[in-house]
Specification:
By secondary structure, this protein is α/β, with parallel strands linked by helices. The protein has two domains: 204 residues, Rossmann fold; 102 residues. Helix content is 35%, strand content 23%. Strands 1, 2, 3, 4, 5, 6, 7, 8, 9, 10, 11, 12 and 13 form a 13-stranded mixed sheet that branches. The longest helix has 30 residues. The chain is globular and about 60 Å long. The N and C termini lie far apart (61 Å).
Length: 354
């Protein structure tokens, strides 16, 4: 098998090289004005990554919008609304107006962010610069958070945050189709802040290897932070707490996830002491059908277990089924390193603009 694997990699290498070269040329063209950027008079913070999802952008964006709220900022989140019907046009979930919003229209992440963010409006649609122009007068935000924005170079930003997942093996840090990267590590030079997520789930030696791998590609001025994702408890489909974190020990669960890193989620549930009776993974952003949910609930019932899913998945599941055995795990970001320095950078980005 190894000769075939080697041959396969050799065949993919030119495609990977071409992909990386095109992204380098694109980034260079925006940086030096060959391609034009849209500039706005309000601060814009980008939260993104170099890999294809699974780095914890959504909980990190929630932490960031909560912190901006504590500074008194009115925040607008600009996002693509991936796999939602409004992805190719636009739509808005206004502050405090979340009733009747369908994940099929806006996408699962938009609903999660609008529900959890205290005072942020969420705008979806891939033409994010045009959408900011269109909705600015209506919302009058003080600051914009550009979700999944590191490759969205058409929109100029004041602060660029790039997230990594400590659980991803170094061998996967190759540009697609050879690896799991959207663009090469040279793009890390544009990051003001680098955040390593799930830093608590690996050995310190593994974390050190990742840092050593990333640092030569980072700007000398970049801040390096470490975070973990802390569960707060299990909630039902009406967003009411059913089990606090310390009550999950010994609970029989059947884990279901349609996210980029389902096994990280399964591991997290297991680490809480739950008795994991089975797991089932679906593609990222999967829209669950009624028959799928009925089958999942039946399987869990046979195992005398509750179904535990992610917060991104529950916004879609609850549209097709209402069952007390369907729960989701809520998580929050907790800094292990660099929190105060990061807060100072965010505060400066916001306050210096006014």
């Amino acid at each position: 098998m190894r000769p075939f694997k080697f041959l396969g990699r050799m065949l993919l290498w030119p495609i990977s090289l071409l992909w990386e070269t095109l992204y380098r040329v694109r980034r260079f063209s925006y940086k030096y004005g060959i391609l034009s950027q849209s500039h706005f008079r309000l601060p814009i913070i980008s939260v993104g990554n170099l890999t294809f999802g699974g780095t914890g952008k959504t909980p990190f964006t929630l932490w960031l919008t909560d912190y901006l709220d504590s500074l008194g900022a009115q925040t607008m989140i600009l996002m693509r609304g991936y796999k939602g019907k409004l992805e190719n046009s636009s739509g808005i979930v206004e502050r405090g107006k979340r009733l009747g919003v369908n994940p099929a229209d806006f996408g699962d992440e938009a609903l999660l962010l609008s529900r959890r963010s205290k005072s942020a409006s969420v705008v979806v649609g891939k033409n994010r610069s045009d959408n900011l122009n269109f909705y600015f007068e209506k919302e009058k935000p003080d600051i914009v958070v550009l979700d999944d924005g590191h490759q969205h170079l058409k929109l100029s930003r004041c602060l660029d945050i790039v997230l990594f997942d400590a659980l991803m093996p170094l061998s996967r840090y190759k540009v697609a189709p050879l690896g799991y990267m959207r663009e090469g590590l040279s793009a890390l030079k544009d990051a003001d802040v680098v955040v390593i997520g799930r830093a608590d789930q690996v050995e310190r030696s593994t974390l050190s290897e990742l840092k050593k791998f990333l640092q030569p590609h980072m700007s000398v001025k970049s801040l390096l932070c470490e975070v973990r994702y802390v569960p707060t408890g299990l909630y039902d489909s009406r967003y009411q707490v059913r089990f606090y974190k310390d009550q999950i020990q010994g609970l029989k669960v059947y884990c279901v996830a349609g996210i980029a890193s389902p096994h990280s989620f399964f591991h997290l549930v297991d680490s809480l002491g739950a008795e994991v009776m089975g797991t089932e993974a679906f593609p990222d952003h999967h829209y669950f059908e009624t028959d799928e949910m009925e089958r999942i609930l039946e399987r869990a019932a046979r195992l005398d277990a509750v179904v535990v899913t992610t917060e991104k998945d529950i916004v879609k599941m609850r549209r097709v089924v209402d069952d007390e055995k369907l729960l989701y795990l809520e998580i929050q970001v907790d800094f292990l390193k660099g929190e105060q320095e990061f807060k100072e950078i965010v505060s400066k980005t916001f306050l210096d603009a006014y």
